[in-house]
């Protein structure tokens, strides 16, 4: 599948302000600074579509982007769907109040958005498994939301080190999960994982 165009639609403070749920939707979440906005730009071939920053906490609202894609068949031509950039968790400088606001906003959005086809949970591939990420996986499990894992910033490490961190994370999950979720290894710099993620979305769109 290829993305033909992508445009910013709206930033919402609650799920109630989001656009009508008339298209399939895919949301990107994960720790602040993990690379959610950069990955969205990489997938859409547009550097400045989602705002990125070296300082954590850049994305504060639920950001909708409308994407038009084609998958090489006439049937799939001009298909429209939403990509959603969400604010990250684990930003140390924020107050308890804003953490609560974040938790409420994210929980309602993830649990109530009827067209949300899959959550992409991003994890920094440079680190050994972090409790905050493992806890969020458990949370998604409790909410019974379909999700996949995306290990980001693979360009920053040797492949061996990336693979070790990915394996450790999956090993941790295996302690409580019977079935592991699909996972992708990505780099927004060298576009690793782009085609695999777009094909995965195309498959869900086609269902
Ligand atoms: P918040 O909106 O603050 O939660 O962050 P985010 O998860 O959207 O991260 P963002 O995309 O803004 O990227 C954070 C920083 O990491 C920026 O300086 C990016 O340039 C950098 N970055 C993101 N993805 C990659 C990657 O694949 N490789 C490298 N080397 N840097 C990356
Ligand atoms: Mg962001």
TrEMBL record:
The keyword Signal does not apply. It holds the Pfam family MMR_HSR1. Keywords: Cell cycle, Cell division, GTP-binding, Magnesium, Metal-binding, Nucleotide-binding, Septation. Signal peptide: none annotated. InterPro entries: G_ENGB_dom, GTP-bd, GTP-bd_ribosome_bio_YsxC, P-loop_NTPase. It comes from the Bacteria. SUPFAM superfamilies: P-loop containing nucleoside triphosphate hydrolases. Residues 22-207 form the EngB-type G domain. PROSITE patterns: G_ENGB. The keyword Magnesium applies. Its cofactor is Mg(2+). NCBIfam families: GTPase_YsxC (TIGR03598). Necessary for normal cell division and for the maintenance of normal septation. Belongs to the TRAFAC class TrmE-Era-EngA-EngB-Septin-like GTPase superfamily. EngB GTPase family. This is Probable GTP-binding protein EngB. The lineage of its organism: Bacteria, Pseudomonadati, Bacteroidota, Chitinophagia, Chitinophagales. The gene is yihA.
């Amino acid at each position: 599948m290829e993305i033909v165009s992508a445009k910013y639609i709206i930033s919402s403070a609650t799920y109630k302000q989001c656009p009508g749920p008339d298209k399939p939707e895919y949301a990107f979440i994960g720790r602040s600074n993990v690379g959610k906005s950069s990955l969205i730009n990489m997938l859409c071939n547009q550097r400045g579509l989602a705002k990125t920053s070296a300082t954590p906490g850049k994305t504060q609202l639920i950001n909708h982007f409308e994407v038009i894609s084609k998958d090489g068949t006439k049937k799939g031509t001009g298909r429209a769907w939403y990509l959603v950039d969400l604010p990250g968790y684990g930003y140390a400088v924020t107050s308890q109040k804003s953490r609560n606001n974040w938790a409420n906003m994210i929980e309602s959005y993830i649990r109530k958005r009827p067209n949300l086809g899959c959550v992409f949970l991003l994890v920094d591939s440079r680190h050994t498994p972090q409790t905050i990420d493992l806890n969020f996986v458990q949370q998604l499990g409790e909410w019974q939301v379909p999700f996949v894992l995306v290990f980001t910033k693979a360009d920053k490490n040797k492949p061996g080190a990336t693979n070790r961190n990915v394996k450790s994370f999956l090993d941790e999950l295996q302690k409580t999960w019977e079935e592991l979720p699909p996972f992708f290894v990505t780099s927004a710099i060298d576009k690793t994982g782009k085609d695999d993620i777009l094909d995965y979305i195309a498959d869900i769109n086609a269902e």
